[in-house]
Amino acid sequence: MLNTDVLVIGGSAAGLVAGSTVKSNYPDKDVTVIRKEEKVMIPCGIPYIFGTVGTSDKNVLPDAGLVKLGVNIKVDEVLSIDQEKKLCQTQSGETITYEKLIMATGSTPVMPKWLKGPNLKYVYAIPKNKVYLDQLHKEIEDCKKVVLIGAGFIGVEVSDELNKMGKEVTLVEIMPNVLGATFDQEFAIEVEKLLESRGITLKTSVGVKEILGEEKVTGVLLDNGETIDADAVILSLGYAPNTKLAENLGLPLNEFGFIKTDQYRRTDIQDVFAVGDCSEKKEFATGKLSKTMLASTACTEARIAGLNLYKLSTVNEFRGTIGIYSTSVGEMGFGVAGLIESQAQKEGFDIVVGSFTGVDRHPGHIDDSQKQTVKLIVSKDSGVILGGEVMGGKSIGELTNVIGFIIQNNMTVNDLLVSQIGTQPMLTASPAGYPLIKAAEIVAKKLR
Q: What CA–CA distance (Å, rounded) separates 245 from 290?
């Protein structure tokens, strides 16, 4: 029997951060992270194993930080939990007892029941599983024509990476635009132009009726009757929370299938917390239930659970998911934080929108300078910034994070106008034409 004070089930981003946070803040507690995988993938880096880094071995979450802190790592699978006795049984036959339990069981790829043919050979998903992904990588090497179904972030990024491998890539999306659920149309269109210029074929506003083939895939039949030849098909249709263990424990789930939690990540069962993709999300701006699954959000939730494990702090609470995303296609980056214009309008907010396009270096003829566009979505009655979208060079990743900070702290347009910034010619836009502040100026004029 293994006795531990804190047991974390799941070893991806949420599990890693939960374990390290607990041990850092409660060093006298024995902390154990149990996970199914010998090696854990960096979630957001998975698409890049195909082209940019070339192997999953270069995309592994290191254990060194946990080990240095004194966190125990156990490779096994929890099969059942007895919360009254505070113990669990593992696949290897071991019994583990605990004081506190953190569920960080993650998510699994959606495999739609309505789709014909998903069990054919050379039809894949993109799970966070190194063994599966290594097999996919090996098998796809001899495939020439690859169809990806679903043009969210994973679909777009994997498409671009397979394109780098020399594959003939077709990306199919039922919505009018790729990344259409995350960006307003003017941003999504720029992503599409870049993908097509790099040789990727896009099929938008069309669904998939069937994956064709006898034993192995030969093509994809679209619902408009068109057939696309394919040696391999990759499904990128989103992820579902992995909550089977939680259900067996008796933890209540919300209508989207996530484990119900409060702002401290506590569940309805005493001493059981839930974090990451398996746990409930609520939108920051509206308070509505959300399906957002992000490693960055998972890490925040894990820190909050770890900080509140033995005593609650009103400072360390989760106030809602903002949804902060970024991606890149070639040298261009695209980012979004909070509500986009179409979402804000759909929710019923009275908004003002302002965009500004500048250059991310000064002077603009510096070799690596690129155009940078910032769009702000602002509440008309209060001036509070509800969301922002950015496109430009790769520096937009950090700018997107800054907009996330702005939203979380309920900053207004006027707060931005009087904010002090540091600039440097080789690193940032000009202080006289800083796109974030210039976009705020445009909104401010509309609010007067």
A: 21
